[in-house]
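Human: We require from you a standard protein entry with sequence in single-letter code and fold as tokens, and nothing else.

Assistant:
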Amino acid sequence: MENMREYRMNFWRHKTNEANRGYFPTSLEIVKMEMDLIDFGEINDGSILNICDLTGGIGEQLNFMHEYIIGKNLVPNSYYNEVTKERYGIAQSKYGSIENFNLLNSDFFNLKARNSNNKKVFTIIRNNPPYGDFDYKGINVRMEDIFFIKNAEMQVDYGIQIFELPIHQLIEDKNLIRRIFYRYENVHIYSFPKPYFDKKQICVIGAKKKINTNDIELAEIWREKLINNSILSLDEVGTPIIKLNPKAITNTQPIVLYRDGKVTDQTLSRGFDAVFDSLVRETTLTNNDNSDLGLKTPLIEQLPGHIALDIYSGQYDGLVGDVLIKGGVKKGTKIIREQEKDVITTTEVEVVYPFVEITSSNGQTLIKEYSFSNDENETA
């Protein structure tokens, strides 16, 4: 109990420390020790792995992992994300030309990643989240907690997550350590070596379960080890302790979507184009004659360009194969401001803007519409 009291006191002192909110990139020596924990022996040469660091700083750690995996005669597809433009710019200049190294500047919670089937896309996840409290959808949560959950949601079954966080978080927050053991198996926890332990960080590594199951007793055993300071340091391990399961490679599919999911008219239009293409492709694959999209035939035949114009203007109403496209327009108000010397005249003009609703034969629906916002008000 004395150890617990000591950690509790340190915890409250630590809460006001900069480590809770700062940017603390991991030393590459630590990254190597973490990667050395993984046994790649059952993975065939040339196998493809999707690896990521979605709070990637300037990208050094993910780049090290990228080169490490190449050294194992495997093929990494690396996915980096960083919310700050400054760090992203550094990573872009250093690693932007590397083959299969994908970079994104996005809020972690807006990020969209998926393959053709689902959102479980990453084989190995590196997760060194910000430390601190966070208002998530009106609820106060710890960043370490919500970043772990969101990363786990993108992990393929049997994939490996390397999770770095302050030791006090697993001691004080029973729910977090239980969530880890609920989602991951073969979990091991190691402290950073003393020269790197100034932020009281630990490394949690485990393999994603195919089916989540409670393992509260094991979580409590590991929590007691943390309280009693009876865990090994990374530099005391020396050999791999977790095998990458070949099933994780089987579950790793090409990522077809990796982008900022923040909704703007530009991303909405891109999304419209992508989904419309997929709906048309779905239709053509089910038709015996792929040249016949089932378009209604007017007196004067429309070429694809004419149909596209009709769709985007909200004037098209009919079938494209098995896809139903229904267009229309809505009314809105556009504000025009005119200034002559110090006199500003404001005029409101009624406008109409198009929308289109697309429904596939399996019930998938997409609605795209365009409206005038205050940012688009004209000044004469």
User: Anything to note?
Assistant: The first helix runs from residue 2 to 15. Residues 1-21, 287-300, 374-380 have pLDDT under 50 and may be disordered. The first strand starts at residue 38 and ends at 39.
